[in-house]
Amino acid sequence: MNIALIAHDKKKETMIHFAIAYKHILENHTIIATGTTGRMIQEATGLAVIRVQSGPLGGDQQIGAEIAKNNMDLVIFLRDPLTAQPHEPDILALLRLCDVYKIPVATNIATAEILIRAMEKGEFHWREIVRSCNSCNK
């Protein structure tokens, strides 16, 4: 599965702890992350991470493009709801694409843990069905 990991500045430490705690699951999947978050995950865990631009420089849009191409299965985007983001339209566009393409998305650590544990139990088999149906509609 292809998993996007994104974290606002004040949530990066939480994302690093998440990646360390669930390294045994994440290492079996393709991880795509925005700039600094991806570097920090690589350094803390040794996981292979495909890095795109930082969010404000287009990274959110790059991940959105992968969603639109049906190349993403899960998005974990730890958002900071208390800090204004200059690229808020890009963030909303990414979340909208997750809704349009039926991509599970977590925007806080509680939901991220529920989704990653479901994935660990093999409860994401329905994503393969959605992925193949989306390919048929092209």
From TrEMBL:
Catalyzes the formation of methylglyoxal from dihydroxyacetone phosphate. It catalyses: dihydroxyacetone phosphate = methylglyoxal + phosphate. Its EC number is 4.2.3.3. SMART domains: MGS. It is an enzyme of class 4 (lyase). InterPro entries: Methylgl_synth (IPR004363), Methylglyoxal_synth_AS (IPR018148), MGS-like_dom (IPR011607), MGS-like_dom_sf (IPR036914). This is Methylglyoxal synthase. Gene3D superfamilies: Methylglyoxal synthase-like domain. It comes from the Bacteria. GO terms for molecular function: methylglyoxal synthase activity. Residues 1-138 form the MGS-like domain. Substrate binds at residues 8, 12, 34-37, 54-55, 87. The active site is at residue 60. HAMAP family: Methylglyoxal_synth. Keywords: Lyase. The keyword Lyase applies. GO terms for biological process: methylglyoxal biosynthetic process. GO terms for cellular component: cytosol. Belongs to the methylglyoxal synthase family.
